[in-house]
């Protein structure tokens, strides 16, 4: 039996397994089976902790519910940093991902602030299928058009809309995620600008679908809104699960502040899930 922890940031939930001291045979299919909400434990992302190497306290491997690997996850980064900080009694933790190192610091009131690294704005960095202006993509579907794109360690496209509630996100999200303009698919954000310092966001997440919150999606939303002149460089981003505070610093780095929570702990038999 392998211990696990179910954590979430604003309802964006994760099954966390720890392979820092004992190797665990986690394949993409096995991660997908555990993430299944009907036959497994269920989560938006499956997280495997691996030993940190020089300069990092822990390596965080992220898999979507379909088993595909994600570069970074902001809400999971805060959750994992809180675990490591509790172990080490530190107020600052460096979480390493395949997208880079993410420093996280403990704030007052149960909040954690993660430096999600610099927003990447070039078409090859997103990546897109061909050279184009990432501030205005030639992409539209069912009432939405003209998104901006950037990478926060994973690809994002952000549409700006007058009314989120008028959109059928479950229908248009999958089509946009798989559009040929995105060779690695993309996370699709829909933003309603309430004021220059307050955005409302819903995200169709690559490989996961609609989620209650998405940290790197909130970062991308603020960056793209600021690039369009619709917001300042710091704003509250309201998601279905709650609020994140996002700041795009002048040096290009994006900071994300929000809470973490542990829902429950347990143990699972890996042999019951297909390898």
Q: Average pLDDT across residues?
A: 96
Supply the CATH superfamily name of the largest domain. Answer: Diaminopimelate Epimerase, Chain A, domain 1
Helical amount: 10-25%
Main pleated sheet: 17 strands, mixed
Instruction: Output the radius of gyration.
Output: 18 Å
The fraction of residues in strands falls at 35-45%
Question: How many structurally independent domains?
Answer: 2
- CATH class designation of the largest domain: Alpha Beta
The name of the CATH architecture of the largest domain is Roll
> How many alpha or pi helices?
4
Explain this structure to me?
This protein has 275 residues and is α+β, with helices and mostly antiparallel strands. The protein has two domains: 124 residues, Diaminopimelate Epimerase, Chain A, domain 1; 132 residues, Diaminopimelate Epimerase, Chain A, domain 1 (Roll). Helix content is 16%, strand content 41%. It has four helices and 19 strands. The strands form two sheets. The protein has a 17-stranded mixed beta sheet that branches. Strands 9-10 form a two-stranded antiparallel sheet. The longest helix has 15 residues. It is globular, with a radius of gyration of 18 Å.
């Amino acid at each position: 039996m392998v211990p696990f922890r179910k954590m979430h940031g604003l309802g964006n939930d994760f099954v966390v397994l720890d392979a820092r001291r004992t190797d665990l045979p986690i394949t993409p299919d096995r991660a997908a089976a555990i993430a299944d909400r009907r036959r497994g434990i269920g989560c938006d992302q499956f997280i495997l902790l691996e030993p940190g190497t020089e300069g990092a306290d822990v390596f965080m491997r992220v898999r979507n519910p379909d088993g595909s690997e994600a570069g970074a996850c902001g809400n999971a980064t805060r959750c994992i940093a809180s675990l490591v900080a509790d172990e080490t009694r530190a107020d600052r933790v460096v979480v390493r991902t395949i997208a880079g190192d993410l420093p996280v610091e403990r704030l007052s009131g149960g909040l954690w602030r993660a430096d999600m690294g610099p927003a990447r704005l070039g078409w090859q960095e997103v990546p897109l299928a061909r050279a184009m202006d990432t501030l205005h993509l030639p992409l539209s579907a069912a009432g939405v058009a003209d998104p901006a794109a950037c990478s926060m360690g994973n690809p994002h496209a952000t549409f700006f809309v007058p009314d989120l509630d008028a959109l059928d996100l479950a229908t248009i999200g999958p089509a946009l995620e798989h559009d040929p303009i995105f060779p690695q698919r993309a996370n699709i954000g829909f933003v309603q600008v309430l004021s220059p310092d307050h955005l409302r966001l819903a995200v169709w997440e690559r490989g996961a679908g609609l989620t209650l919150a998405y940290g790197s999606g909130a970062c991308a939303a603020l960056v793209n809104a600021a690039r369009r002149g619709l917001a300042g460089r710091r704003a509250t981003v309201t998601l279905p699960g709650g609020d994140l505070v996002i700041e795009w610093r002048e040096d290009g780095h994006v900071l994300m502040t929000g809470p973490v929570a542990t829902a429950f702990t347990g143990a699972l038999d890996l042999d019951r899930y297909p390898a």
